[in-house]
Specification:
Elements lengths: L1 E7 L7 H9 L6 E4 L19 H11 E9 L7 H9 L2 H4 L2 H5 L5 E8 L10 H10 L2 E9 L9 H14 L1
Parallel strand pairs: 1-2, 1-3, 3-4, 4-5
Length: 170
C-alpha cells in the first residue's frame, strides 16, 4: 500500500498551491490528485450525482493510501470551494456508502494551506481537525506556506516549516 496522497483543491492547477506541493514532494514519492481535473458534484440527499468521479476517487484513495494530505489555497479565510465540495461529498460515506466510509478509520489526515503572506487566521484548520475526529482519522497536523514579496517564490521561513511537515507526513 502506498503511504501518502496529496489532494490538491485549487482553482489553478499549477499555481502557488502546486508550488508548495512540489516543494514538499521534492523526492517525487507522493501521489497527487488535482480535484480540478475531476467531475465532482455537490452533495445531494437524493444522491443524484452518484455516477460522477467522487465515489471511484474516494474508493481508490481508501484502498491505496494510509495518509491523506489536503492542499488548499486560502480563499476568503477558508479552504477553496472545490475542496469544500469534496469534503461535503464525504457525506455520501455516511449515508449511502457506509462500509466504504468506515474504512477511513485509523487513516491519517494532514493539511497544507498557502497564501501570499504569513497571515493565516486562527481557526482555519478547525474543519479539517473536526472532520478527522468525526471520521475516526488521526490528524497529523498542518502547515502554512507563503510567498516572498515578489510572490513568485516560497518564503524561506515557510520553507523551514514545510521541510518539517514533509517528515511528518512520510
Amino acid at each position: 500500500m502506498k503511504k501518502t496522497i496529496v489532494i490538491q483543491g485549487s482553482s489553478k492547477s499549477y499555481g502557488n498551491t502546486r508550488k508548495v506541493i512540489d516543494f514538499i514532494n521534492s523526492e517525487n514519492d507522493l501521489n497527487i490528485i488535482d480535484l480540478k481535473e475531476k467531475n465532482i458534484g455537490h452533495f445531494d440527499y437524493e444522491f443524484k450525482n452518484k455516477n460522477d468521479d467522487f465515489l471511484p476517487l474516494i474508493k481508490n484513495i481508501i484502498e491505496n493510501y494510509n495518509t491523506i494530505v489536503f492542499a488548499t489555497p486560502v480563499y476568503w479565510y477558508s479552504m477553496s470551494g472545490i475542496l469544500k465540495v469534496f469534503f461535503d461529498r464525504c457525506s455520501d460515506l455516511l449515508y449511502q456508502e457506509k462500509e466504504l466510509g468506515r474504512q477511513l478509520r485509523g487513516k491519517n489526515m494532514a493539511v497544507i494551506s498557502n497564501s501570499g503572506e504569513n497571515n493565516l487566521k486562527e481557526g482555519f484548520y478547525m474543519p479539517f481537525i473536526e472532520s478527522a475526529s468525526y471520521l475516526g482519522m488521526n490528524y497529523l497536523g498542518n502547515v502554512h506556506g507563503w510567498f516572498n514579496e515578489n510572490g513568485k517564490e516560497i518564503d524561506n521561513g515557510a520553507k523551514e516549516k514545510l521541510n518539517i511537515f514533509r517528515n511528518l507526513i512520510k
